[in-house]
Task: inverse folding
DNA sequence: ACCTGAACACCGTTCAAGT
DNA sequence: ACCTGAACACCGTTCAAGT
């Protein structure tokens, strides 16, 4: 894999850093800025040092190790997401859809942070707030608290997992992404029908892997199934 | 983050490698073996060299670069999955469930490969076979070819994304994983109810992030929604 | 033809040194 | 107290050298 870190792209630190300008907040902001311009290699101490105009190891003054940094940046991602979130409505399913698409947008914009965020618990304030808002949607639907908790976890993981895939694909080295996309237009369309009868019968209908409507349909399907299940449970009472 | 590569765990190459013993198949097998014992750092040239008892760069004789290696190993993962797959039945939904759980198992067993597999197209024979079998399930359900293609993509991406999250969590440094799991038992259970009324109302019901039934429920929900949609389309005809 | 050794530009992390 | 420089064990990749 070619190294995703391009030396030309990182601005050289021409000015020395004034004392006491570094802080957790400043570093998190810088991390989100690099992760918007660079790909999966954005979250290194060197990339951050260059962005801040500081020595890479200066960051250790403010975060115990990489994991503490990384969880703080993940929570910064959730802060950015909450700031962009449309206000909640009286429609719990619409609010769930808004939550999901906003998360997807923010993940694709910051792929390096997204890869980590998907499988981690930041256990910091903006994650708490995000969980609160998601659970609020399920509770407003009228389901039991046990169901709200269960479907919160499953819905969130599906959204996190799908968004992380789309983020990773968007951040892939352009040459590799092109080759992957082309495979579905070329290799998959010239397979022998005798060996792959079902595949070849439908290849022309397979949506592109980078089609953003795939994610939206996945979210709609989850909501439909959860609604159908909890409606059936209510009738059974 | 502590380095996931442990020197003590990798066997030293005491014997020199006989000429001509290296091949694509041997290297892929070794890669799947290391990725079963080591975590996210399993797929490096050094780890592979140690496993093979060969110089790390000897691999370049057999694969052009890391990406070609990686796509071949991803396809090796699909080969392993297909070998473990239970034979298909007359129940398309049950077959889809089997496909999903087998993929989840293989991903969790090889987390380093899984992280890459989720967002890539190997465009090699075992991936073709996997796509063929998945599309076969949807076509047997009686839906249109266009729907089979659409739902293949969305169902597969949900399974891939969720499995990749569970794989990453399972491969996390044990200390970090413990801290993440504990957050849901401690931090999340001591939040102020005034600020987080919905969260605190249901915290005791939230399933653990490593509960394997979360994934199975997600798969069931997807199948239920797809079945409901296509049944409704049939009635409309 | 197939494998090794040395080199290069990257990683995270530690620690002594500067201010 | 806050930041820098040098060092260490890792990365992927290239290329000259060995057999």
Result:
């Amino acid at each position: 894999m070619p190294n995703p870190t391009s030396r030309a792209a990182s601005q050289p630190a021409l000015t020395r850093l004034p004392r006491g300008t570094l802080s957790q907040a400043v570093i998190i902001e810088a991390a989100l800025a690099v992760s918007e311009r660079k790909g999966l290699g954005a979250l290194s101490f060197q990339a951050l040092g260059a962005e801040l105009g500081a020595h890479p190891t200066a960051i250790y003054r403010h975060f115990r190790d990489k994991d503490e940094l990384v969880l703080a940046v993940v929570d910064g991602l959730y802060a950015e997401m909450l700031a962009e979130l449309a206000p909640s409505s009286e429609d719990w399913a619409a609010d769930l859809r808004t939550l999901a698409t906003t998360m997807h947008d923010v993940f694709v914009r910051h792929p390096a942070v997204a890869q980590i965020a998907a499988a981690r618990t930041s256990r910091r304030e903006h994650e708490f707030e995000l969980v609160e808002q998601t659970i609020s949607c399920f509770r407003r639907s009228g389901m039991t608290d046990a169901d709200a908790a269960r479907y919160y976890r499953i819905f969130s993981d599906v959204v996190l997992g799908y968004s992380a895939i789309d983020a990773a694909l968007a951040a892939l080295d352009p040459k590799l992404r092109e080759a992957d996309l082309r495979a579905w237009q070329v290799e998959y369309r010239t397979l022998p029908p005798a060996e792959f009868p079902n595949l070849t019968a439908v290849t022309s209908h397979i949506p592109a892997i980078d089609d953003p409507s795939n994610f939206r349909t996945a979210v709609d399907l989850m909501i439909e199934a959860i609604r159908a299940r909890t409606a059936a449970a209510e009738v059974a009472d």
User: Anything to note?
Assistant: Chain A touches chain B through 66 residues (CB under 8 Å). Chain A is about 65% helix and 0% strand. The radius of gyration of chain A is 21 Å. Residues 3, 5, 7, 19, 41, 44-46, 56-57, 60, 65-66 of chain A lie near DNA strand C (CB under 10 Å from a C1').
